């Protein structure tokens, strides 16, 4: 289990990317926010001597988790059916710097996201949004015992967690985060009810590490402490 961490500069909106190494072919969890990030991770995978990825799981459809997928043309992309519908529509949009400026001018609340997209994309050559090839509704078990489970939540309707029992890791994406900035309302914060459910060993099992996309990995105790700050 390898973890390529998030960018500490929040304006860049780049989450962490996981690699679950397996001799039959590694599994990526999320694709990075651009082909450039995906190519950097590919180089680091090769330098570490890890098996080449064969599958890529989206934790949800947001751009910073999926825009790197076009740099992985030979992998099977897996995602929740609700996110697939959204990404199929996203793939038809005329992405480019001019389009980003026009959209941000029309809705200023999109500004932080769209400016970060522009920074991430030095070139649009051969860029494409890649919808999932394999879609699921509730849960999916992959070879090697990797468990993919839909949890939903307010951040994204398709939010998915990925359990790697052999490594004691639960990959969370952004599932318990508040809604994206352009949809956020005053008082929106982390989803305590969802965090509590993730800690339910009867539902998800017990894990040593709980890894969300824009924070350092947390132990179970640290997640419980986070929940306590929310009054849970």
UniProtKB/TrEMBL annotation:
A Pfam family of this chain: Lactamase_B
Domain of life: Bacteria
InterPro entries the record matches: Metallo-B-lactamas, NDM-1-like, RibonucZ/Hydroxyglut_hydro
Signal peptide: none
Gene3D superfamilies: Ribonuclease Z/Hydroxyacylglutathione hydrolase-like
Domain Metallo-beta-lactamase, residue spans: 14-214
Protein name: MBL fold metallo-hydrolase
Organism (species): Micromonospora coerulea
Source organism phylogeny: Bacteria, Bacillati, Actinomycetota, Actinomycetes, Micromonosporales
């Amino acid at each position: 289990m390898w973890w390529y961490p998030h960018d500490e500069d929040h304006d860049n909106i780049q989450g962490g990317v996981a690699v679950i190494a397996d001799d039959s072919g590694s599994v990526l969890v999320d694709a990075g926010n651009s082909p450039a990030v995906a190519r950097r991770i590919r180089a680091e995978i090769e330098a570490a001597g890890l098996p080449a990825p064969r599958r890529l799981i989206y934790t949800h459809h947001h751009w910073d988790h999926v825009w790197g997928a076009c740099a992985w043309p030979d992998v099977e992309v897996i995602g929740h059916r609700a996110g697939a519908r959204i990404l199929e529509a996203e793939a038809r949009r005329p992405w480019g710097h001019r389009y980003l400026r026009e959209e941000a001018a029309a809705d200023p609340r999109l500004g932080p996201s769209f400016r970060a997209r522009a920074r991430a994309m030095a070139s649009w050559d051969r860029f494409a949004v890649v919808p999932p090839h394999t879609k699921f509704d509730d849960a999916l078990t992959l070879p090697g015992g990797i468990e993919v489970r839909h949890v939903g939540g307010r951040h994204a309707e398709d939010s998915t967690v990925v359990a790697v029992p052999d490594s004691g890791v639960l990959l969370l994406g952004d599932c318990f985060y508040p809604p994206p900035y352009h949809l956020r309302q005053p008082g929106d914060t982390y989803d305590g009810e969802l965090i509590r459910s993730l800690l339910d060993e009867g539902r998800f099992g017990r894990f040593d590490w709980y890894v969300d996309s824009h924070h350092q990995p947390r132990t179970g105790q640290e997640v419980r402490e986070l929940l306590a700050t929310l009054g849970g």
